[in-house]
Amino acid sequence: MMEKTVELPVEKLKPNPWNVNFLLDYERARLRDAMAKHGSKAVPPILVREKNGIYEIVDGEQRWSIAKELGWKTIPAIIMDLSDDEVKRLCLSYNVLRGRADWFKLAEIMAREAERGANLEAVYSPVLELQEISVVLALNELESKAKRILRREHLRRPLSLSQLGIIVKFPKKIQPRIARAVVEKQLGLGGLKHLLLVYGTRTEEEEADGGTDGDRENAEKPQA
Length: 224
Hints:
The protein contains 11 helices and 5 strands, in the order E-E-H-E-E-H-E-H-H-H-H-H-H-H-H-H. With about 220 residues, the protein is an alpha/beta fold. Strands 1-5-3-4-2 form a 5-stranded mixed beta sheet. A hairpin with a 2-residue loop joins strand 3 and strand 4.
């Protein structure tokens, strides 16, 4: 793979459509302060590929957006020759390693690619386990209110795929309650597993006893 480091005009750069990275507010503020104080020496070069006369950012969208805010004319970049699938994998691997992947955005991207007939396993399995890919796709099926609650929380206090993988196992009708419990009680993986176990046990007992609708309603209320 051929690559070189150059100074590229900021206006000739654009984000790629598969980036799922995000920074918490204080992280972005700290990065901006460092770039304002020390210039390009504060950060490593961004990674880009040339596409149709424009340079598409593979890694470094946050650095580029801050450079624009600071009025930089150029930014150091490494130019790489990459295919679309390679860009997707690199973006995701960088973000997963940093612990800052927006799983909900990735779920939407994967859903669109699946509709176009893409082989998601071939594209993403070098970075994610097959079970993790299944969990990401399942986020598209979350109850809409629960999804809004969880996504907002994830961008404030990142949730793991393991946590989200437990939440998607609950019936849709109680997912908003589970989502609120995650936010209000800051439930971790252990707490979610316990709730799922309690729900499953109550449901089995209810079915065995031919429980009433009132019993079902009580069983659906997560006890934090």
